[in-house]
Design a protein that fits this description.
The protein contains 16 helices and 11 strands. Helix 4 packs antiparallel against helix 5 (59-71). The chain has helices at 3-11, 25-28, 30-36, 38-51, 59-71, 132-150, 172-178, 231-245, 284-305, 324-337, 344-354, 359-366, 402-406, 428-434, 437-459, 461-474; strands at residues 75-78, 87-92, 97-103, 158-164, 187-194, 198-199, 206-215, 254-261, 272-281, 308-317, 411-417. It is globular, with a radius of gyration of 24 Å. A hairpin with an 8-residue loop joins strand 1 (75-78) and strand 2. Strands 1-2-4-3-5-11-6 form a 7-stranded mixed beta sheet, with helices on both faces. A 4-stranded antiparallel beta sheet has the order 8-9-7-10, with helices on one face. It is α/β, with parallel strands linked by helices. The chain has 2 domains: 3-204 and 319-474, Zn peptidases (Aminopeptidase, 3-Layer(aba) Sandwich), CATH 3.40.630.10; 206-317, Alpha-Beta Plaits.
């Protein structure tokens, strides 16, 4: 079903007309259903935190969420789209179809106890240094709370929860998008743990992720080097070329890499070597142009070394397409819910954790433009206020596969304070916060705001229409094309090897 057809059928399907704007009884009571299940949600978040499973390995994390949703009356599809740890849970049968995006993958190497000082649970092990244990659980909680609030009105809307694996690999939602799992959605709602309570108006970067594999000829590195063709030489020459290429791309783009295989010992000419590249830029078309130039660099490296190469394309993603109409609705909902309220123990934990932060980085943050219109933030260690939406028209350096969803259906993202201001991203400090009561309180606020946003959209179809009008204008002449080719097998086991 095309998007236009989807929206026409919804508009003609008898969805309830406009009733109120953030004020009716049905809307204002939604957050109570999150409070009702708060202990259950915290238990799920802590279990996922304890599992700390990396991308496409989230077997227990996806199971605990799927089991819970089944108990709440949702129809759960496991292995959605042919992805073993992806789930799609659905309740209701009317329109609009409201989707909540969840994630539950951990990061390698940031294992940490819930302590304000460095102490790994498992040395070198994974941990939730990006708070995805909270992310997925809050989105799940919002879906269930909205279902509870609708009660017997199952014909008024369809609620979906998407359990999306491997966001840290920028792959889960991309693969799900290729399989059409978001195609009939009317609205997508998401959030991300952070240090501020706000609505996201800034976009991230589009990205390509690929491994370049070079194949040479082994030989004795000292006794017979002239017969060898070093695959490692090819990798190193490619990296040199990529570093020169950096001088001739747009300033907002980036190229970065790690060598994943470079041989076994110095006295053997390596017959195989591999380097893993990310290419990022503000727009998808810019990524594709730079990536094409990078593949030319790889060709040159192979030619210079007498080797051959192939590309293992892992994933690509789009930049986030901001929907201002939805952002306005979410911001009003956040104002109604309020910010997380932390106790003395939370502040004590935050103060001790902050002692490990890079002081110059924190001072730079507090002097940045982000804090200019909120001077109270400069004195806060935990954000206990709402921060007006900011970042419009700006592109952050990071990427997310939420971007792919946003080019298929109108999408909104918020953030809630789950860690102290200045907490480094993808860090052990973030992992500690994600397992703490600070993380729990931010998670519950996010669940309430998202559930409230979902109810507001159900009760006011005109808001959905406004979101679609904006989406249609912004995507005119541009149609989403999944970066991962149709027909190719998902490389689920090729990221971590």
């Amino acid at each position: 079903m095309s998007k236009s057809t989807s929206m026409v059928s919804w508009k003609q399907g008898g969805c309830p007309g406009p009733k109120h704007i953030l004020g009716g009884a049905c809307v204002k009571d939604v957050d109570k259903y999150v409070d009702k299940r708060a202990e259950e949600l915290i238990e799920i978040a802590d279990a996922v935190w304890d599992f700390s499973e990396v991308g496409f390995k989230e077997i227990r994390s996806s199971k605990i969420q799927g089991d819970y949703l089944e108990r709440q009356g949702f129809k759960v599809t496991r292995g959605a789209g042919g992805i073993p740890t992806a789930i799609v849970a659905e309740w209701g049968n009317g329109r609009p179809i409201i989707g909540f995006l969840g994630e539950y993958d951990a990061l390698a190497g940031v294992s940490q106890e819930v302590l304000p000082v460095r102490k790994a649970r498992v040395e070198g092990g994974p941990g939730h240094g990006c708070g995805h244990n909270l992310l997925g659980t809050a989105s799940l909680g919002a879906a269930v709370a909205l279902k509870d609030a609708l009660g017997e009105r199952s014909e008024s809307a369809t609620i979906r929860y998407y359990g999306c694996p491997a966001e840290e690999l920028l792959a889960g939602k991309v693969y799900m998008a290729r399989e059409g799992l978001f195609d009939d959605l009317d609205i997508a709602i998401s959030w991300h743990p952070g240090s501020l309570n706000s609505v996201r108006l800034g976009s991230g970067t589009a990205l390509n992720s690929a491994k370049f594999q070079f194949f040479g000829k082994t030989a004795h590195a000292a006794g017979d080097p002239h017969h060898g063709r070093s695959a490692l030489d090819a990798v190193e020459l490619m990296n040199v070329g990529a570093n020169y290429l950096r001088e001739h791309i747009i300033k907002d783009a980036s190229i970065h890499y790690v060598i994943t295989s470079g041989g076994d010992q110095p006295n053997v000419v390596p017959a195989f070597a591999e380097v893993w590249y990310f290419v990022r830029a503000p727009r998808r078309d810019q990524v594709e142009e730079i990536y094409e130039r990078l593949t030319d660099v790889a060709k040159g490296a192979a030619l210079m070394t007498g080797t051959t190469f192939k590309i293992d394309f892992l994933t690509g993603c789009y930049e986030v397409l901001i929907n201002d109409a939805l952002a306005d609705v979410m911001w009003e909902c956040m104002q109604k819910v309020g910010a997380p309220q932390f106790d003395d123990a939370d502040f004590e934990f935050a103060k001790k954790l902050a002692e490990s932060f890079d002081k110059s980085m924190v001072e730079g943050l507090r002097k940045s433009a982000e804090f200019e219109d909120c001077p109270e933030l400069k004195e806060q260690i935990l954000n206990t206020t709402l921060v007006p939406p900011r970042g419009k028209g700006k592109s952050g350096g990071g990427s997310t596969d939420v971007g792919d969803v946003s080019w298929i259906v109108p999408t909104v993202q918020m953030s809630a304070a789950t860690s102290p201001i200045g907490t480094p991203g993808h860090s052990w400090q973030n992992c500690a916060s994600s397992g703490s009561s600070i993380g729990h309180k931010g998670m519950l606020v996010a669940a309430k705001a998202m559930a409230l946003c979902g109810m507001e959209l159900i009760e006011n179809p005109n808001l959905v229409e406004s979101a679609w009008d904006e989406f249609t204008k912004k995507t005119e002449g541009s149609q989403y094309q999944c970066p991962f080719p149709k027909g190719e097998e998902f490389p689920l086991d090729r990221f971590f090897r």
